[in-house]
Structure of 7-carboxy-7-deazaguanine synthase:
Amino acid sequence: MRPFAPHAMPAARPHIEPRRVPTADSVVVKELYLSLQGESSHAGMLCGFIRLTGCHLRCTYCDSEFAFHGGSRMKIPEVVEKALAWNTPTVEVTGGEPLLQPGVYPLMEALLDAGLKVLLETSGAIDVRLVPPAVHKIVDMKTPSSGECDRNDYRNLTSMNANDELKIVIGSRVDYEWARALVTEHQLGKKPYSVLFSTIFDKLHPRQLAEWIIEDRLPVRFQLQMHKYLWDPNERGV
């Protein structure tokens, strides 16, 4: 059988370019809450979450459709004040797709200036080169079963630094072969950032993915989405 390769996918659609607007002083926030970080190398750590409204993707396995619309516009100092009130050193900016909002860049800078460790969860469909280097970027490249694989912005593979992590969520053997080809073709095991493989919850048993990784000796980190096992995914603020 011919190896599955990322370039075998349909041609990518035009990318949304990141936009920094120096005068942006607010963001639309869907929810703010304190919980435990459920994934990445920070899994299990106390973390405050700033979820911004809006996303241009419609992944088949999306678990945050509620964030597509609604929310409240908040000034950046107000958001930082809320984050500091959690009294935890780590916060994550997530969505939706937070990089759609120009105000996210000054927000991340303000959170860093306040002395916080800042994580960013982003879809992989917008280049992260304009994100402050001190931010820990978690970039979620979309697999074929997401229905949005052609939206991946492969510039991210060279825009990320040693602070960052590339996340690939896998729901089938086809997804796994696509991800394996991506790791091999782009020599991701030699990049300064980590590569994380996890399963789509209730679509692929984690043990199956673990066995594939072991069999192929892939230079990736296997992870579980801890929050999916701890809390009902329909609950807000966890």
Q: What stands out?
A: Strands lie at 26-36, 46-52, 72-75, 90-94, 117-122, 136-141, 165-170, 194-199, 221-222. The mean pLDDT is 91.
